[in-house]
């Protein structure tokens, strides 16, 4: 049954939930099957990576140890940027981990620790993809004319996330109008 419907693992006997080949096959088909795997397999690097390759939301079922393991998280984020959402607080504050995720997709910035949202280099990396990344910037960077100009050049609607005084800046308004 698991071969046809990975979520059948939910109703499987305990000996199947701990059976590594069965669980691996299930999570490869549907990452959410990880929710029903035995806890020791939710801590298995290969099982969890297979699950997040199938569906990055499966990361929420990974063990807390894996969510706090930098090497594992770098691999998980390489598989899908959205895995950053489930990283430990420490790793959401790790510049290298967050940068790897942001390089995949600017939206990863929303999962970064507050302190990293104030890092100009990180924000500019996100803005290179989409100016709307300004939405996730610290207040300080939303008030930085250079950062806002870069964002507005990529996406005029990003001006809505700029500090009040910059939303009234005629130069930025001209850039947004182009």
TrEMBL record:
InterPro entries per UniProt: DUF4116
Signal peptide (from-to): none
Pfam families per the UniProt record, alphabetical: DUF4116 (PF13475)
Domain DUF4116: 1-42, 44-92, 120-167
Superkingdom classification of source: Eukaryota
Segments passing through the bilayer: none
Record protein name field: DUF4116 domain-containing protein
